[in-house]
Amino acid sequence: MLDGEGSLARLEAELREQGWTVRRGWTAAEGERRRVCAGVVADEADARAALLAAARGAGVVAHVTAGRDVLEWFFEDLRRCGPVDYLRGDSGSLPVDDEQRRLLALLREGASLGEAAERLHISRRTADRRLAAARRALGVKTTAEAIAKLGV
């Protein structure tokens, strides 16, 4: 994720200098090598198209403007395709929201992730994504570290 269109253009130029083929948009042929798809992820359709390009083997450089709901699952699913790095124009971390705080509080109290999800009226998968996003935002690797750092 990049902090703006200017950063996207600079990164595209840098990748081209390194011998990569960079194309705007999310079209990638299966198994195509040394190809990077670049563009803006403004909504769920863009996110799905970018994920498909990554699953087909292309690198993905995205300026993400979509809302937090799309951002969370996009990054979680993108991580399943390979390593993910991101740059931000603000504080450098994603904020921990109230639902993530409640989720961490329930886990601290001894609830399983499934029980916590049920109490928050969200799916187990959504709870898992929110927990992963909270750990990333806090810069920790484990849920225990997240609970300790957040002090819930």
List keywords for this structure.
three-stranded parallel beta sheet, 2 domains, mainly alpha, 152 residues
Poorly predicted regions: 89-93
Shape: elongated
Calculate Rg over CA atoms: 17 Å
- Major beta sheet summary: 3 strands, parallel
With strands numbered from the N-terminus, the spatial order across the biggest sheet is 1-2-3
Portion in beta strands = 5-15%
Task: Give the count of structural domains.
Answer: 2
Q: Could you tell me how far the N terminus lies from the C terminus, measured between alpha carbons in angstroms? A: 29 Å
Mean pLDDT: 81
- The SSE order reads HEEHEHHHHH
Structural class: mainly alpha
Using DSSP, what is the number of strands?
Answer: 3
Alpha plus pi helix count: 7
Percent helix, as a range, is 40-55%
Mind sketching the topology for me?
Elements: H1 5-17, E1 21-24, E2 35-41, H2 44-55, E3 59-64, H3 68-79, H4 98-108, H5 113-120, H6 124-138, H7 143-150
Parallel strand pairs: 1-2, 2-3
What is the gist of this entry?
The chain is built from 7 helices and 3 strands, in the order αββαβααααα. The chain is mainly α. It is elongated and about 50 Å long.
